[in-house]
Fold this protein.
Amino acid sequence: MIGSTRNLRVFGYTRPADLRKGFDGLYAIVVAELDRDPLEGDCYLFVNRARSRAKVLVWDGTGLCIYMKRLEQGRFASLWDPAMSGASVELTMSELSLFLEGSEVVGRIALSPHEIKPMPLARNAFA
């Protein structure tokens, strides 16, 4: 598990990244293209064009860390979509863990309704 018990936000870069880049190159992408500060402690996910490798850049409080994973078979799910607007997509830590395990992205399901509407249990039979 990346990080600690802290609540971390995860931002996935929605374009293929050149994963030959190290700390400085990925830091520059976060600052220039995502308009975020990597030193805030959030995680940043980058995937190469072939979707066989992924890197996560995170500030742990004392320095930048890069976690890298290479799949031996298959591909990571695609973070980029031509219809998608913006340079990043926000994920949860659970979604990041599933992504790095090679799980397929099928969509998000709301865990609870947006608004609870009270309804009578039964019609008034005596009226």
User: Anything to note?
Assistant: Residues 17 and 107 are 23 Å apart (CA to CA). Strands lie at 10-13, 43-47, 53-59, 64-70, 88-91. The chain has a mean pLDDT of 82.
